[in-house]
Write a structure and sequence with these properties.
single chain, alpha/beta, TIM Barrel, 15 helices, globular
Amino acid sequence: MKKFDNNFMIGAATAAHQVEGNNVNSDCWVMENMRGSSYKEPSMDAVDHYNRYREDIKILKEAGLNAFRFSIEWSRIEPSKGNFDNKEIEHYRDVLNFCHENGVTPIVTMHHFSSPKWLISEGGWESDATINLFGDYCKYVVSKLGDLMPYICTINEANMGLQLNRVISDMMAKMQREAASESDRADVQVGINMDMKSMMEHHMRAMGEAFGTDPRKVQPFLTPRTEQGDIIIMKCHEKARQVIKEINPNIKVGITLSLYDYQALPGGEEYVREMQDEDFLHYLPYIQEDDFFGLQNYSRSIYGPNGKVQPDENTRVTEMGYEFYPEALQGVIRFVSEHWKKPIIVTENGVSTNNDKERVEFIERALTGLQQCIEEGINVIGYTHWSLLDNFEWQLGYAQKFGLIAVDRTTQTRYPKESLKVLGSIKKYGL
């Protein structure tokens, strides 16, 4: 039976806004509750992890896991610009201490999608000012809690803005393909573009009202990103790494990126090279001084001579519409290892499904591939499954089930799933 090294970290991940509840000063809270919101439902109490973190960490520990990735909510720490809330620092100190008391290694993310409302009102993630503002926030947190944080991910999925550009482009192309199947008239194509333009204009006006500023300046993290915005994100990472290391050089610092296992059919090789560069390779100059890389993967994407190959009706897909393909993880690990020789932590990997047997299958297949990568000499030091709890999946609300623990949100009662037990047994006994 193949067994992971005793020091190997296996655990689960969360994000503050998705689990804590009542993050009333965050931009996501504003967007959930604004006129014409694109969110299916508001987060409200979420799964009350803010008050129940001891219970959740204890369930994780009792299952046999030894790592917990979670994020600190910037909008709690700095609810208004320059005003830091020490009460919230003490809350996260308690979370960190509870991890250590239970033999659980905390992997802390400083920014996981949600930002303070005031930051977005001042230009958000397309503003150069955000570089120093993010640095000040990280400096404050690490000056207070650094001795309790062995690993810090500065920014979660720093490449998400560029991936959202592709999502919108793909969505437009799909709408046009569907319209073309009904009619090839030019006015149909023009109508689609006009409808989309009108929808975006209404949305931006509502965003401007919600944040009290020029709609063109409203740039939350989860929005399509310009090339300049992409550079700003990485400068934020560099600034955070700098201040963290100045305060405590022993902290291991990295960043996380969302990566697909890009596979090329004959003729699709150039498309794959473009995607790999956009998602990963062009970031390498900014992360050379990092201590580890946070790898996040959920599926693969196949390209042929005409571009992306869409799944057919026989393709097995998840509730999110991704292809069910756990082997994508090993493909991405091998690709990253060709360009990155320092430690890798799989900071997210999982599946949305209402059938927990599928989650068990996903975990076993994904970790079998991960173990093979380690045997090949690739320096993978940890794996945190997404996610610990069924939680708030941003615009999609609570319908998607990624968790190892189910939650009855009427009572906030936790119900550990078989998949949690299986992941814990893999940590204890191997595959």
